[in-house]
Each structure stands twice: as structure tokens, then as C-alpha cells.
Amino acid sequence: MYEVEVKVPATLEVVRARLEDAPLEVTPQGAVVQTDTYYDAPHRSFPETDEALRIRSEHHQSSPAEPSETAESDAGPHDTAHETRVTYKGPLVDEESKTREEIETTVGDAETFDAVLTNLGFEAAATVRKERERYAVVPADGAADEFEFTVTLDAVDDVGEYVEVETELEDERALESARNGAYNVLRALELDPDDQIRTSYLGLLLES
Known about the structure:
The protein is an alpha+beta fold and 208 residues long. The protein has one domain: Beta Barrel (Hypothetical Protein Pfu-838710-001), CATH 2.40.320. It has 5 helices and 8 strands, in the order βαβαβββαβββαα. It has helices at 12-21, 46-49, 110-119, 175-188, 201-207; strands at residues 2-9, 24-40, 52-61, 79-92, 100-107, 123-139, 149-156, 160-169. The protein has an 8-stranded antiparallel beta barrel with strand order 1-5-4-3-2-6-7-8, surrounded by 4 helices. The longest helix is centred in the C-terminal third of the chain and has 14 residues, at 175-188. The radius of gyration is 18 Å and the shape is globular. The chain starts with a strand and ends with a helix.
């Protein structure tokens, strides 16, 4: 699986307004709070190999007027669900986006999997926390792009505000087409693909 992703800095309040008027079919996908813990490996340096391994804890949010019956008893008043995933990200595969091979699976408990990694010699390196709003997006005219994209509005603690446009695909031969589609979504939101940042949120946090 390949994740094609383009990320640009943006003022989220402005982008929210543009989502309503852009020539796109936009479907809100809800808001989440994500806490990502990244690990260093005992056998090689992930910063040097441009890889990443993380445990992500994610709380899905609901509106105050619509509390979920599935909310965990120890969650906040508007949390509808909690999920934990382990993700491996390979090196960037091109010089024009943040496209990577990505392998991900759900696990039952973050602390337990952290103990597994720790006993294998992995060490927690840093934690990134962000609030995300997600929107499923396709061109309103039904033209050209065969991909459905996710537009994510990110407020990242100690890093700033960003917009990500991403999609997933199986076939590496479709990378260029998917990347160009992501650029078109950015332009529809009056954002410039040339402003994209290929550094991860982890990298931005460590640089700050």
C-alpha cells in the first residue's frame, strides 16, 4: 500500500470556509485527537534511513448534542471511540510529495505493544499530538481524477496548522496521477502545491 500525501501550511479557519465554496464534493468525516509515539530502532537509525515506526492512539469526537452510546466509560464527554494502531512508514519514494509505502494494523492496547517494542530494544523517541478534521473529497464536475482524497485540517501541538491531501493506492504506477490529483485539490482550496512541506510532523517538532 502506498500513501500519497501533500502537506502545506495554512490557516485552518480560512480553509474551512473555502471547503464550502470550492468546486469539490465534500463530505465531513468527523474530528479526532491523535497522539503518536515514535520509536528508534536498535538495529538501524530511522532518521538516517528515512523510516518511521509509531504507535497511534486516536480518539474520535462527536458533537456535544450527539453523544455516542459506544463511548468508552473513561473517555471524555464527547469521545465516541478509541482506536490504537501501529504503523511502519518506509522512505519517501519521490521528490515531489510525501509518498511512502505504509504498513498499518490495529492493536488492542498501546501500553502492551509499547512493552513489546521496549523488550525488543526499541526506544520511544518523541510524541506528537494533533487535532484533526477530516473531509472526503472528489471533484464536483466528476472529471479526470479517479481517486477519492481525504483533506485533513491539522492543528499540531507546538508545530502549527497544516492541511494535508492524501489518498492510498496499491499500484506504484498510479503515483504520478494521484499526486497530480492531490495538487488539483489544493488548488481548488486556493492553496499552492509549491508551498508543500515534505518534513513529517515529528521532524517539524524536533526542529522547533
